[in-house]
Amino acid sequence: MSYQFRKANLSEIPSIWDILQKAIQRRKEDGSNQWQDGYPNPEVIQKDIEKETGFVLTIENQIIGYTAVLINDEPEYAKIIGKWLTNEDFVVFHRVAIAEEHLGKGLSKVILNYIEDFALSKQIYSIKADTNFDNFAMLSIFEKLGYQHCGEVYFRGGERLAFEKVLNK
């Protein structure tokens, strides 16, 4: 498969929001409280894109995945209950979502591999992320890709598990 991972455009918000809405519904059906509080929403996506941090995964120009990728931009990570592996520059990603008709193909891992490439292209060797304690799919991906649990962080009043992966220089 020939995937592309690129910055999202404002005109793509409806397609991205459709993917995220279905992911929000899946989290609800899984019994999770993640993404059940009005976040994420179209305004969040718009801000991601305006800040040039919104990225899409495409195949044949069809959007099949979305994430936000930022550099050194997660204030809550400074308040970790635990300890990060590194204190260097880092890439952080949020809001990974795959289109419903493309689930089960390992595309979240594809996105995370592209994020590693992005980090290395910026000479950054740390990737930090967080997820809900009941997001078993993402927890499994973190384990398979070598992320290490570092502690907990808090967002919108909820505890999240914090992970870091140190990349080889």
Automatic annotation (TrEMBL):
Signal peptide: none annotated. InterPro entries: Acyl_CoA_acyltransferase, GNAT_dom. Residues 3-169 form the N-acetyltransferase domain. It comes from the Bacteria. Pfam families: Acetyltransf_1. SUPFAM superfamilies: Acyl-CoA N-acyltransferases (Nat) (SSF55729). This is GNAT family N-acetyltransferase.
